[in-house]
Amino acid sequence: MTYKMIVLDLDDTLLRNDQTISPRTKQALMDAQEAGVKVVLASGRPTFGMRKIAEELRLQDFGSYILSFNGAKIINCQTGEELFSSTLSPETMESLYRLSQREGVMIHTYIEDQIFTDIDNKFTDIEGDLTGMEIVIVDNFVDAVQEPVVKALMLAEPEELAIVEKTLQAELAGKLSVMRSKPFFLEFTEAGVTKGTSLNHLIHTMGIKREEVIAMGDSYNDLAMIEFAGLGVAMGNAPEDIKAKADYVTDTNMNDGVAKVVEEFVLKALVTQ
């Protein structure tokens, strides 16, 4: 199979624990792009928090794309155009806020290039560090969110959030997509919006078949695209139930897992052509 697209989660997949791309991985991805293979970044992160990585990999030069907010936005890196955008209404955000209060967890969302929350907390601080976005602490969360937003996150210790996840997935089934991107991040987007559905939309606009796509990730919000892609790859550091559903398990994010897949399934095939 000749693969035409490589889709990559960021945290704990493309990026090492210090938030950098290894030289081997970067070289493999640049070689793939030089050969005409599209490299697409797909993350739960806001678009703002993905731009530096996209620039480092020169996605704009190769006419590639970002799938941000767990697929709720598709951005053309070359033109800045939004190919797809999904949002949650202020009324939906108010409902989510009430649910977070009921469940005893924290919540934040994104307005333009800022993170809004009503409680100063370590989990929002983590998101601020990951994305480089300013955190705004508001007095009244509902009053602060008076325009549509792309997604919301509920925040708590992993053991507590796992219980909330099961409760709200059942309660909001068919109304919102509910999934964890990290053990302490529970994400909410419009119903039916996942990295998988967003990837499906993108490849149809580009004339690429799903069989020609490699998708790599490590967490539950990556599962939809791992299962959708022709070659769905779980990182060596992924949970066992994610690995069980992947077509292939590579090495960890700290041991060039992404580079090893690109070298084996993309670059080696190009040499033999």
Give me the oligomer status: single chain
Overall pLDDT confidence: 96
Topology, number of strands: 14
CATH superfamily of the largest domain: HAD superfamily/HAD-like
**Sequence stretches where pLDDT stays below 50 over 5 or more residues:** none
Largest sheet report: 8 strands, mixed
Could you say which structural class the secondary elements and strand pairing correspond to?
A: alpha/beta
Euclidean distance between termini CA atoms:
11 Å
General description of the model:
- This protein is an alpha/beta fold and 273 residues long.
- The protein has 2 domains: 5-85 and 193-272, Rossmann fold, CATH 3.40.50.1000; 90-190, Hypothetical Protein, Haloacid Dehalogenase-like Hydrolase, Chain: A, domain 2 (2-Layer Sandwich), CATH 3.30.1240.
- The protein is 38% helix and 23% strand.
- The chain contains 11 helices and 14 strands.
- The protein has helices at 10-14, 23-34, 51-56, 90-103, 122-131, 141-144, 158-171, 195-206, 223-228, 240-245, 257-272, and strands at residues 5-8, 38-42, 65-68, 73-76, 82-85, 106-111, 114-117, 134-137, 152-155, 176-182, 185-190, 213-217, 231-234, 248-249.
- The protein has an 8-stranded mixed beta sheet, with helices on both faces.
- The protein is globular, with a radius of gyration of 18 Å.
- The N and C termini lie close together (11 Å).
- The mean pLDDT is 96.
